């Protein structure tokens, strides 16, 4: 079959060739319904643009650089793989290529990859918050940027992340519904904005729920599973132990599980443990990890949409998404259905790996 032209696509979609061109190039000026109609037709007929011709005609590379920093834990990569999948699907639908690369640091200064320094990227997605200096360094090469999994205050730079009050609220509502009243916390100081927001939201939520805040059960220096295990051990040294520990990352929860097992603490009979991120490893630790879940693919696709709007010259505001809810497994005591309905004040779902259905809502 001969190659389909933009005019033929326009005829199939019942729109003008200009509208099709706007959709293909990620430009504003068409309604969302028109954009969806054109993208559906493109997907149905398998249309692919001539990238070389587009690059020359529009003076664009149609590359989006996806930058990440070297991680202290391989579990971080599991989280960002799912985010990248959502970004990749969105970029492909909009006619962009993803170029994956990492930010290196030499003598405290960021060394950007050549795809940025040679101006071969139309835009940049950065995994995790970076300093304002690094962000400005990226944009100095003419490529607008968006930070993915951001906890920075709105206005510092364009970013998308999960709402910290939503994360903390989802976890604590679930634990409280499971009759836990003595709750500890393991989080990180690696991302200062995250630490600040968590250490504000956690005691505020406990107080609002009529529970006492115990600073001796709060550890803020986890960086990976090993340091999280040390944090959990310190919590166990307190004169009085908590009956649950909330960890702001599954990495930290996995480390906590290891420390509790080593000291003969039964999970969840003695202490419940709940994580956040719902990485695939949660299914395979023992006991399997109950965790706060996010739509990681949506996080990536929304970041891509924000970036394409910035490439087109639009102003965008930072976005904070809510959690999906709790994925119930074995590491935390489960609330009864009555307590779920009464206590869990959130639009989120309760589900398990086996059902993926709402439960406790009938």
Automatic annotation (TrEMBL):
Pfam families xrefs: LacI (PF00356), Peripla_BP_3 (PF13377)
All copies of domain HTH lacI-type, residue ranges: 4-58
Protein name: LacI family transcriptional regulator
InterPro entries cross-referenced by the UniProt entry: HTH_LacI, LacI/GalR-like_sensor, Lambda_DNA-bd_dom_sf, Peripla_BP_I
Highest taxon, organism lineage: Bacteria
Organism field: Candidatus Colimorpha enterica
Keyword Transcription regulation: yes
CDD domains xrefs: HTH_LacI, PBP1_LacI_sugar_binding-like
GO-annotated molecular function: DNA-binding transcription factor activity; transcription cis-regulatory region binding
Keywords, in A-Z order: DNA-binding, Transcription, Transcription regulation
